[in-house]
Design the sequence.
């Protein structure tokens, strides 16, 4: 239906459906390309899709201040929100969310801002309707019914369930019950490859070689590495940083001259381990460590592309063990081929043609700056042949079973004014969808991406960044080296502090991001049986130490895969926590990953006792979680109880 303005302001349309069912509200942008839709005043509570689902009462000053401060909000991940008025909730859906933002101030507004010269790039419309369902997640059911109807969905795809994806690509079944790991340390030769107490003797043996291949290897090291080798040989108690430096130099020499690796492996050198066990995170010993701990399903991703360090033996073994293994890849930015090594990254390196002609162009003719302001964003149409070559050549080297494409499924797309590859945000999105679909259709890969936008839910299988979004920019303390909350440096390369250092969460970010009284499993109820989602890699399950317990319980309530950063050095320090959580979570996830979440309840007034109910073919399964530090209704403090037909899976769990 086409509604006229109601006196709220120029091009402001009141969203107030009449009668039952969903109704469509449309607007024509003004000459500045803007149009707004306004909710009725005096809502009592709001259900928002941020951080996988947030519920805030209008009388909650702190919660409302957070909503206002975050405005304007994008709605690209889940273009759905709700407002409660008495015993009814108004559900609002955006079929065309790319140019829309949500603002909370004196009123709640959805404002469309169309691009310069392209006011017809997408319709300005919302779909809305009332529901009297008393479940907090009622709007998720409204959304599901609307998508199933399949009419007027805009750019939102029809649902494709995980069960359908499993039937089309059996490898997707390996996501069920799989924890997610980023593996650090790409070296083919690492400091683990010499017995810890023999490094001094090993360094002496290298340094004393006067002729032959070992002397050639030492000669291939630069002056700084040879000095480190000398210090290592002379040290009574060799320090780790020296071992790392020498091992890294040897590895670099192997990359430049692969023929040097064989003679070293065959040499009788003190403490040198067999070549088959060489490596760090992406290594056979790391796989065996996981298997020995009882982890039989895992998503294993390298922490960068590492195109020149593909380990076919590791990938093959991972496939045999039932894991999915793949590289981290991206086609979001393109950098100059002449960029200094410390100002670029591997996934953004292509060639001069890509850099000069592949960049996204702004309306004023300038290039659209890339991630962190470096280089430019890479037009998907231009990136396409480079992606085909990269994926094809790397898969020819190793049988990767998954591929992770950074940024694509966040929903962030661009208006491109290039004469060579013009695109609206919808065009950009469709091109990204097609390249993700190509990975599934042509290569039969299990596909992951940063984010988990519903706009891409049918063409990816898992997403990172939904259940914990990137929040590193929201409090200065996270970037302040003098703060206890500092996330850490990007060093050392095989175990960077940024990923491995556990820090306390700044108080400003506790509510509502990690406060169970605000968090609700809205995303899980709306589309969670279509794909698997976890945390942003900057905030793995162990990164924020003072809320790690609450996050573990939220993982169990919403069936969110835990995520961990791993290296061979980090594994002994993290193994106990990982193994314990996995033993309880994984069997449940195998049963419930494909099951819709049909209801969510607060069982106590303080909202710290919660229940999520899932529907399976064998009946409903309820997961009840007590987030409180004391018992609630016979549940132990900070514990979980599962009811329903779950086979041999454990029924109770408590944090230690």
Sequence:
């Amino acid at each position: 239906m086409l509604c006229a303005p109601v006196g709220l302001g120029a091009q402001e349309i009141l969203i107030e459906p009449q009668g039952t069912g969903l109704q469509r509200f449309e607007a024509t942008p003004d000459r500045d390309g803007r149009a707004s839709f306004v909710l009725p005043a005096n809502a009592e509570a709001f259900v928002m899709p941020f951080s996988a689902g947030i519920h805030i009462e209008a009388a909650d000053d702190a919660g409302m201040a957070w909503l206002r401060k975050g405005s304007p909000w994008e709605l690209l991940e889940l273009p759905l929100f709700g407002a409660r008025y008495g015993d009814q909730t108004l559900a609002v859906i955006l079929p065309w969310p790319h140019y829309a933002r949500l603002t909370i101030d004196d009123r709640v507004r959805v404002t469309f801002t169309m691009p310069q010269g392209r006011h017809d790039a997408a319709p300005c419309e919302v779909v809305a309707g009332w529901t009297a369902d008393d479940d907090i997640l009622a709007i998720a059911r409204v959304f599901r019914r609307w998508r199933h109807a399949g009419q007027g969905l805009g750019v939102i795809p029809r649902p494709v369930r995980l069960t359908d994806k499993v039937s089309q690509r059996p490898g997707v079944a390996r996501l069920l019950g799989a924890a997610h790991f980023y593996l650090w340390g790409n070296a083919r030769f690492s400091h683990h490859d010499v017995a810890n107490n023999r490094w001094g003797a090993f360094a002496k043996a290298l340094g004393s070689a006067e002729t032959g291949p070992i002397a050639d290897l030492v000669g291939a090291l630069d002056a700084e590495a040879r000095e480190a080798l000398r210090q290592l040989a002379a040290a009574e108690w060799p320090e780790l940083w020296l071992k790392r430096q020498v091992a890294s130099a040897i590895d670099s020499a192997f990359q430049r001259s692969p023929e040097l690796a064989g003679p070293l492996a065959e040499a009788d050198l003190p403490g040198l381990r067999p070549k088959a066990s060489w490596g760090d995170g992406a290594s056979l010993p790391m796989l065996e460590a996981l298997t020995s701990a009882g982890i039989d399903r895992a998503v294993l991703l390298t922490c960068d592309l590492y195109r020149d360090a593909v380990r076919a033996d590791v990938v093959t073994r991972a496939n045999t063990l039932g894991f999915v293994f793949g590289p981290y890849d991206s086609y979001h930015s393109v950098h100059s081929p002449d960029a200094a090594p410390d100002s670029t990254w591997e996934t953004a390196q292509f060639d001069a043609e890509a850099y000069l002609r592949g960049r996204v162009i702004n309306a004023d003719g300038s290039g659209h700056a890339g991630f962190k302001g470096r280089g430019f964003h890479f037009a998907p149409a231009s990136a396409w042949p480079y992606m085909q070559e990269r994926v094809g050549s790397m898969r020819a080297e190793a049988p990767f079973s998954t591929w992770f494409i950074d940024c694509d499924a966040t929903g962030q797309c661009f208006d491109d004014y290039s004469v060579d590859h013009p695109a609206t945000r919808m065009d950009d999105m469709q091109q990204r969808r097609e390249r993700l679909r190509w990975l599934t259709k042509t290569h039969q890969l299990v596909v992951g991406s940063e984010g988990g936008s519903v706009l891409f839910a049918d063409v990816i299988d898992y997403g990172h960044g939904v259940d914990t979004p990137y929040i590193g920019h929201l409090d200065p303390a996270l970037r302040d080296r003098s703060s206890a909350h500092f996330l850490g440096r990007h060093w050392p390369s095989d175990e960077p502090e940024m990923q491995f250092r556990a820090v306390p969460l700044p108080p400003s970010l506790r509510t509502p991001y990690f406060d169970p009284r605000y968090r609700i499993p809205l995303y899980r109820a709306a589309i969670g049986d279509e794909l698997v989602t976890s945390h942003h890699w900057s905030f793995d399950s162990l990164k924020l130490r003072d809320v790690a317990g609450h996050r573990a319980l939220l993982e169990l309530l919403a069936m969110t895969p835990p995520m961990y950063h791993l290296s061979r050095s980090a594994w002994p320090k993290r193994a106990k926590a990982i193994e314990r959580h996995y033993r309880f979570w994984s069997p449940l996830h195998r049963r419930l990953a494909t099951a819709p979440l049909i209801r969510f309840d607060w069982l106590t007034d303080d909202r710290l006792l919660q229940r999520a109910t899932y529907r399976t073919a064998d009946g409903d399964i309820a997961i009840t979680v007590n987030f409180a530090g004391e018992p609630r209704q016979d549940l132990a403090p900070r514990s979980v109880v599962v009811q329903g037909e779950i086979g041999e899976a454990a029924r109770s769990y408590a944090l230690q």
